[in-house]
Amino acid sequence: MRHPLKLLAGILAFHASFICAQTINSPGAAGGSPSVLMITRGDTATTSACDVGIYLKNELAARLMAGESVSFNLPPGETTVTLRSLGAGYCSAPMASIKSQSLLLAPGEIKQYRVVQSEQGYFLAPVDLYQDR
């Protein structure tokens, strides 16, 4: 009988922590609708074969391979985005300089960007919403 009670207590604790996390991260608690940041990467014919790491506020948030896209629900306001090459060998060599970009997101706004590679490194270029490049 003791084992089922431990299992039930564990399940209740998990659900309680999940409810608390939803309350803390809910857009209503921040005072506005969430913003959506969409980032797309082209195919390998036009970009590097290395994976690209997307860092939001200096934390790895996604890893994009060629041809992939990712979307983030973010609180409105200023967000810092940094792109870095990920992987071993050639991909681990740092590109010229890693620069962060600051993006301003309004409540409920949807912004779409594509990853662009230049001699100076990776950066985000704005794209008309839902346009595939």
How would you describe what is shown here?
The longest helix is centred in the N-terminal third of the chain and has 24 residues, at 2-25. The protein has helices spanning 2-25, 27-30, and strands at residues 35-40, 51-56, 59-64, 69-74, 77-86, 100-105, 110-118, 121-127. The protein is of the alpha+beta class. The strands form two sheets. Strands 4-1-7-8 form a four-stranded mixed β-sheet, with no helix packed on it. The chain has two domains: 1-31; 32-127, Transthyretin/hydroxyisourate hydrolase domain (Immunoglobulin-like, Sandwich), CATH 2.60.40. It is globular. It is 21% helix and 42% strand. The N and C termini lie far apart (60 Å). The protein is built from two helices and eight strands, in the order H-H-E-E-E-E-E-E-E-E.
**End-to-end CA span:** 60 Å
Determine the fraction of residues in helical runs and give it as a percent range: 10-25%
Task: Write down the CATH class of the largest domain.
Answer: Mainly Beta
Look at the structure and name the CATH superfamily of the largest domain: Transthyretin/hydroxyisourate hydrolase domain
Uncertain regions spanning at least 5 consecutive residues: 12-30
Radius of gyration: 19 Å
Outline type: globular
Which sheet architecture does the biggest sheet show?
Answer: 4 strands, mixed
- Output the structural class: alpha+beta
CATH architecture of the largest domain: Sandwich
CATH topology assignment of the largest domain = Immunoglobulin-like
The average pLDDT is 76
The largest sheet has its strands arranged as 4-1-7-8
Signal peptide: 1-21
Protein name: Lipoprotein
Keywords: Signal
